[in-house]
Write a structure and sequence with these properties.
heterodimer; A: about 900 residues; alpha+beta; 6-stranded mixed β-barrel; 21 strands; elongated; B: about 55% helix; about 15% strand
Amino acid sequence: MNRVGRFFRRGPLDSELAAEIAAHIEEMADDLIESGMSREEALQSARAHFGNRTALLEQSREVWSFMPLETLLRDLRIGVRSLRRTPLFTAVAIATLALGIGANTAIFTVIDKVLLRPLPFPESDRIVMLWEKPPKEHLTASPLKNPDQNTVSPANFMEWKSNTHAFTDMAAILGYSMGVSGVGAPRAVNGQRVSAAFFRILGVAPLLGRTFDQSEDVPNGADVVVLGYDLWQTQFGGDRAVVGRTISLLDQPFRIIGVMPRQFDLPFAHAELWVPVQIVAGDTDNGRYLSVMAKLKPGVSLRSASADVDDVERQIGRERPRFARDWGAWANPLYRQTTGEVSTALLLLFGAVTFVLLIAAGNVANLLLMRGAQRRREIAVRAALGASRSRIAAQLLAESLILSLAGGIPGIAVAFYGLNAISASLPALGLPAMERLYPNAQVLLFSAGLSLVTALLFGLAPALAFSRVEPDDALKQSGVRITGRAGRRIRGALVAVEVALSLVLLTGAGLLARSFLNQITVVRGYRADHILTVPMFFAPTRYHDNERRARYVGEMLERIRALPGVEAASSADMLPMTGMVSGSGFRRLDRPEPPPGAAPTADFLVVSPQYFKTMGIPMISGREFDEGDTISKEPSIIVNQTFARKYFPGENPLGHALGLDWSVRHGVIVGVSADARQTDLKVDPRPVIILAQSQSPRYFGALVARTAARPETMANAVVRAVHEVDPDQAVSDVESMEQVEGESVARPRLESVLLSVFAGIALLLAMIGLYGVLAYSVAQRTREIGIRMALGADARQLVKDVAGDGLRLMLPGIVAGVAVSLGVTRLLRSLLYDIGPTDPLTFAAVCTLLLLVGLAASWMPARRASRVDPVRSLRWE
Amino acid sequence: MLNNDDKRSLFPGALEMMVLETLRRGALHGYAIARHIQQRSDDLLQIEEGTLYPALQRLLREGWVEAEWGLSDRNRKVRIYRITAAGRKQLQRELSSFDRMLAGIARVMRPQAS
């Protein structure tokens, strides 16, 4: 008979065995009767000789059963029963675990989606972004986050394309916000001008129609457009007959030739439509503004691809030193492009939730240890009845398993809930907004595994500690006095570890919080209150010549300034706090010309009259731009104070002439402004050259207005004023300057808030752990305390003793936590502003906080100790 | 407290080996196997007779013995066990390794006088 057959035929087998054993005993009894015993005696003796029939039957059965599975199920049944007898304990343990497992599942879902999932393009590991790399002195001085990822000039792109060998295809991408009209209200959309190769590199076929081909991606090629899925849905209601229709982009008709499938988007550069970039070969424009994407030839390594493009770039530098001397170039994999910045924050959060889970596991282990101590007698009885040590350990582990699974299921609910919140805050983390995040099968598998590992973590110590119970000892003694020095040591160690882990988290949270505070309280140099910002773009066909551009901006400003409630209005090519900066070279015209490539550089800003008044930036000397700064006059320049100090030390810069590498080629300094932060709050003021929009009319990016009332209330009136000048002007994202600032620090704020939340949970859990251990030890020592009270001990002294126990439990944890933090907070360095990763004040504050909270957690057990009634405690047995 | 394992026999598998050896001489029922082992060992091995049954179940599971219901000398309904070909092979294997083990132990326990 095979095993499975046996398994299902348990009944007949048992009865056969029982019959067989009965026959055995009777045969033996017959032998004994033959040797002269009475039947009674013989049967008794035969049974004694045979041994424990039930146990042997059981063992015989185990030979056949699927041993592990069956015992496991039985252990689980017993476990459920025993856990249900202690509902409070069970509830606390499950809630703790649900929190820990849920937080881990949520963060892991995000990590899985963002860091682990390959990009949705075939062979995406071969797709790279190519960047120019400025000379070293520019790199170190740059205010940008990734100064080595400089956009590429069209001329260089053409050179790379024809002279490199490592790539199958190379495409230029130029982000462009363009007004769409002809369908619904005019609206600004994020478009991209891209090479035909763009779609080949990404390898995604259009949903409808086709993408453009090489013949359309040439100067003066066809005006064709490929729509993104969302735009197709919102503007055309998903009409499949849209291909072949015409829409107006930038006031020009474009023929729709295709629609891309849903989710087709670059993770770091969102676009809703694509038009051919149509780069003019031999373009002498020296601006660097293209993003370049390329696909590696099969088998070409990243390093050799970088070397290939760098060689070509160095050659350009030798041929045109004024433009590209000492510039390099390199290839960055597309996936790193997406996640590079984000991964630090995500991994930080993952570390935090792992700590929370470890602390939760520590707490449950402690609970189990205490419970185990109370259950010593039960365990001893089971051992006495013949349960082997491994059986008892398995039983205890089964209980841990039930707890962790019971915690894992609500944990997934916690994860769903948390993911809702996280999905909403993804853009702040620098991630593209995604459709609702939900844990997939892989992630759920991860959570299940996590639950199991956690069960092992918190179940192993108690299982090992209590399976060693000597039944004789445990049964002889009364329950109260058995505390077990080993058990106490383990409990103490667990609390110390929990304290250490929560201290690390608190330190990290404290550092991030202070860094965030430093950022939002930094002196900006401008007054952010009561400013309305209106980003917009020219429609180039309508405003293609400089005079018209200048006049257009002037007219809009005139109308806005005339609005009641507007105190001042101006324009800027780049709003502060939007992370943008443009820089170029300059020289003092009263000094000899520096050699090529050695000219100093400064940031450039182009503004209209009243800019400094609107922004609340004081003028130090000279004047603001005014209506007299017209395009036909000598260009005027305003510099900031940092510029004046650096390049005109001890001189009055007013009246000096500068030669510029950008826009107007020269100008005269007419004013010096106070310093103000521009790129973002973290970047200290740098030397800035400010030009007049009326004299550099191409450069325009936003209107700004200072309002008397709250700026939001003026938004409609300002947009109306714009549309009075040009009804087709696309306007979007009208915000107050405070909102713009808020977005610029959204990410540090989110990082700091999330880490604080996790640190708070960790602290709470660790304190529950501390409280539990102290309360338990007081309960255990009721007799001892009673005796001391009876002998006249002071209640206050008892309180001090228990609180002292609490401190003794915490101290090693605090020391260890500080040591670990000193090593770990270094990883935060890139996220910190104006505070060191080992900031002593933060460390001291966190330790003090932990000690205070620890004392509070000790207080309740201490009070209970001081209220022990000596008489009752001595009777308590 | 003695563990069940301690009661079984000298070492794990020893009882099974002795059962196979006993059955090699002919088919027997459980009680008869127990008697045979006890007599052959001159009562030196005190086996708790019940432990025979888990051992027999293990041997059945491995396919080294087979069993069918029959009658004892006293006309009692009993299961009669018979060694299979696989059981004989297994016995050979165990005997040779057992011999080697005994020889090894003997050399250690009784070193030659020098």
